[in-house]
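Exercise 7. Predict the structure of NAD dependent epimerase/dehydratase from Periconia macrospinosa.
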Amino acid sequence: MSVQTRLIKAVPPANRQKPMGVLALGMSRTALKVALEKLGYNVYHCSECAMRWEDGHVDLFKEAMEAKLHGKGQKWTGAELDKILQNYTAIEDIPCLHFVDELLEQYPKAKVILTTRDIDSWERSVRSTIFKIVNLRVVHFMVNIDPVFWRPYYWILKSTVDKWTDGDMSNSVALRKSFVDHYDHVRAKVPKENLLEFHPREGWAPVCKFLGHEIPSDTPFPHVNDGASTVRLHYIIVLITLWRMYRKHVGIAVAALAAYGISRWMRVG
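Solution. The predicted structure, encoded as tokens:
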């Protein structure tokens, strides 16, 4: 019986030029990405994973999550995660959130920020974004026709939702327990002197003091976490994918027809 080769083995060893500075380990939809970028960090976020699909990031993280969440194959080590993250100085959001222990072991000197949010508003936010995206008819359509990006990307989103809800998206009790358990786990693993618990309404001061940065004088603290924009972005990715798939074969006419169809889907889906 043949043994399946691990995708991560084909990735060269990391050659990190800058240390990992920040592990933003708050649950998804407790955004800190834009603020960290303003302070000069290069942040690996779910959107970055998606944008780097041509570099294999979606398939690679699917492999890592299959091993971690479902026991399929050999679990990734922190050093293997660093192969993917070597050009980044901060992380936030899924898929990295599934690897808290590995990240803490690999980057013991990184500062840990635990962004917090009222659990009721957090549940409303994930249900109006990640949950909505995995239920969109157009996304299911794309999963069926695009095995290159949408199929593994959807798997990452759906597996995350299933983990949070014990496989039942209507299970609010399990979802909220996942939120609480995640925060308790991070607090138990990280020394207090290396951990900042932070709510975005507190502004720049706590983050900058914790990370040793001057407070930006020209920019208010960014509150960028618009759920509707996140959903719209996925419709745009659908259009881009359709254009990539069909432009060489059937030309502009079919691409325009697809765009029209998707625009109608956006109104009714």
